[in-house]
Amino acid sequence: MDGKPRRRTRERILETALRLFNDFGEPNVTTTVIADEMDISPGNLYYHFNNKDEIVNALFADYEREIGTLLGAPEQRPHEVEDIWFFLHLLFETIWKYRFLYRDINDLLTRNRLVETHFRRILAQKHETGTTICRGLAASGLLAATPAQIPVLVTNMTLVATFWLSYEHARNPRGAPDIGHGIYQVMSLAAPYLQGEARRLLEKLSTAYLDTP
Q1: Domain with CATH 1.10.10.60 in the chain
Q2: pLDDT beyond 70 at 52
Q3: pLDDT above 80 (res 69)
Q4: Mind giving me the DSSP string for 114-182?
Q5: I need a surface site. Which of 4, 58, 88, 100 has the fewest CB within 10 A?
Q6: Which long-range CB contacts under 8 A does 160-164 form with residues at least 24 apart?
Q7: Which option is the CATH number for 53-209: 1.20.1560.10, 1.10.357.10, 1.10.10.10, 3.40.1010.10?
Q8: Model pLDDT, residue 77
């Protein structure tokens, strides 16, 4: 009986912290602010988390689990342009859900060892998944990129997917970006290499985003 309320309080702390970190930036939110927002005592919060880094680490673990499932096993990775578009939607939605990790990443990397080592691992996994997708498209004749061009293409796609949110935040700090624009930016990198029906499908899917600067 006692364990159930404690777990619920822990979940509420994480939910509140995630919302505050996303809205105001992780460096600007203290454990006192989180406790005040929840209308609980700091002691109650410290019962579940000894400090803010433990909260960050717990949120990062949730993020790592979600994005790891998305990047998935090779047989679950998309091999058609329409599937890739949907895959990128899910990827950007996950990034948006945990956007403080991306906006505050430089600060987190300098002081949080878990984020430093695991975020690097996630970047490598993104690159590996992108490489698998591009090689699959090339093998099926849908992508006219050479083996030497694919690593460069994948690096650029990973770069845009990872830091597009920070770019949009710098352009409009008080507005919510359109995730579709980020997806279009990533897919447009592959556009020059796409062939035939894959190229036409991309043009059809991206019609709504052609006015993206």
Answers
A1: 1-50
A2: yes
A3: yes
A4: HHHHHHHHHHHHHHHHHHHHHHHHHHTTSB---TTHHHHHHHHHHHHHHHHHHHHHHH-TTS---HHHH
A5: 4
A6: 160/185, 160/186, 160/189, 161/88, 161/91, 161/92, 161/95, 161/126, 161/186, 162/95, 162/102, 162/123, 162/126, 163/102
A7: 1.10.357.10
A8: 56
Is 98 in a helix, a strand, or coil? coil
Sign of the dihedral defined by the CA atoms of residues 45, 47, 51, 54, in that order: negative
Query: Which whole number is the average pLDDT over 149-177?
Result: 90
Distances (CA, A) of 41 to 35, 36, 127, 201: 6, 7, 43, 55
pLDDT score at 81: 76
C-alpha triplet 64, 67, 70: angle, nearest 5°: 145
CATH of domain 1-50: 1.10.10.60
